[in-house]
Design brief:
This protein has 445 residues and is an all-alpha fold. It has one domain (2-427). It has 19 helices and two strands. It has a two-stranded antiparallel ribbon.
């Protein structure tokens, strides 16, 4: 206990995630968790547990056939904790037991989800849990009814809620062997997954702010407009989904059995599933065109919005970098957006996140390319999918070397907690200088 008291807020957060991963890995490795009754190799269990808590969706085994009902439920709990953030679960349980949260508890909770801050933590997390269960329930009911024709009642709704929870948490684990390829033309299934994924990927702060505005509009009360954060997140998300849909639509060699509306729906689905880091697919990723594959890599790398269940460098990060580049080209002194000026700290953070993500990708690429015999684009796709916590794959996950699995486990964890968070945890207490050096220019470009 004395050791924990010496740790920083960020270090406690990282240790908490590692504890959950290890616990789930142990449970998944038990004979009761597999359908065959045999133990799973601990490395594979640890891989799946990390993939679950990071809401990635990469897996070396078929979830629906390999794990028993017990194993699937353990994984589902792991995914739910990862989507909400384990501190959200902690705060929720504290509220149920009417226990008071210490100041340190408030700080760790605030660090776990963007938008929560001391003084507003309890109310914010109440809404986070409420929004999560409401949208997962709605998605589960719709999907359950959609699958009544294919499965018995209990199985249809179990499948419905399993996939709805995965969609909202942007995990992408499925109980069907082909993900959702067999439902590529099913409009209700596609639209439900798209809607739930977009809600989960836009971020709890945006959802909460939108809810507050709508509530005040209904009650005819004065309300504050959407914040710059919400506007940038929404606009960037819509632009990325639109670009991704168009690129996928025009670059694919479509089969004659797919009519234009089907092609649009599939293209939209894949753009959303990559951008929100959902991870489901309605086409065989290993057979799509190079242009579509590269577009998915870009969308996975950027990912969802801060404070969401998704991964990636985040929409606001790429949005900030775009605004920074635009302001420099136009000769503006400040980086402005919607009549507001972005702080220097925000710009530095965005550039640091981009740089660190690229460093991780570069390091992984060197290691995996040395170990694996797969094609370059397949390895790169797998790495970005792991780092962006997406779960899409060209089909090589099951055949990866153990060394590659270890590095992808680390990559998924970094993608979940963030490279800056990992860096802060390793450094410990940050020391800010009380002085500044003289200015001198460096030639750039």
């Amino acid at each position: 206990m004395k050791f924990l008291k010496k740790l920083s807020t960020i270090q406690l957060l990282v240790i908490g995630y590692l504890f959950v991963i290890t616990t789930v890995a142990v449970l998944l490795s038990l004979p009761i968790s597999s359908a065959s009754g045999q133990r799973q190799a601990f490395l594979d269990s640890f891989f799946v547990a990390t993939s679950g808590i990071s809401t990635t969706g990469l897996t070396p085994v078929d979830i629906g056939s390999y794990y028993s009902l017990f194993g699937q439920i353990v994984l589902l709990i792991d995914i739910q904790i990862g989507g909400l953030g384990y501190m959200a679960i902690f705060v929720f349980l504290a509220l149920l037991m009417q226990a008071k949260l210490s100041m340190r508890g408030h700080l760790v909770a605030s660090a776990s989800v963007s938008g929560a801050y001391p003084g507003y933590t309890l109310k914010f997390f109440e809404r986070v849990v409420a929004f999560t269960f409401i949208f997962e329930f709605i998605g589960g009911i719709i999907l359950g009814f959609c699958w009544l024709e294919k499965f018995p009642l209990y199985k249809a709704f179990y499948f419905g809620f399993f996939h709805s929870i995965n969609a909202f948490c942007t995990a992408g684990f499925g109980l069907l062997p082909d993900s959702l390829i067999s439902f590529s033309k099913n409009i209700p299934v596609n639209l439900t997954i798209i809607f739930v994924s977009l809600i989960g990927g836009i971020g709890f702060y945006v959802i909460n702010e939108s809810y507050t505005i709508i509530k005040k509009l209904i009650n005819r009360q004065m309300y504050r407009k959407l914040s710059i954060h919400s506007k940038l997140a929404i606009i960037t998300t819509l632009v990325l989904v639109l670009i991704g849909t168009i690129v996928f639509l025009v670059s694919e060699n479509w089969d004659g059995s797919f009519h234009f509306p089907d092609r649009v729906m599939i293209s939209l689905f894949q753009a959303v599933t990559a951008q929100t880091t959902d991870g489901y697919n309605t086409v065989d990723i290993g057979k799509i065109s190079s242009a579509s594959l590269f577009m998915l890599i870009v969308l996975m790398f950027i990912g969802a919005s801060p404070g969401s269940t998704g991964g990636g460098i985040k929409t606001t990060t790429i949005g900030t970098i775009y605004l920074c580049s635009k302001s420099y080209i136009l000769g503006d002194k400040d980086v402005n957006f919607k009549k507001r000026r972005l702080s220097e700290n925000t710009i530095k953070k965005a550039l640091a996140i981009l740089f660190l993500f690229l460093i991780v990708c570069f390091g992984d690429m060197i290691i995996l390319a040395s170990v694996e015999k797969f094609q370059f684009h397949q390895v790169l796709f797998e790495i970005v999918s792991a780092l962006g916590n997406v779960g899409l794959s060209t089909g090589i996950t099951s055949y990866l070397h153990n060394i590659s699995k270890v590095f992808l486990i680390i990559t998924m964890f970094i993608g979940r907690v963030g490279p800056l968070t990992v860096g802060f945890a390793l450094i410990g207490k940050r020391i800010f200088g009380s002085f500044r050096y003289p200015v001198e220019d460096v030639f750039i470009g």
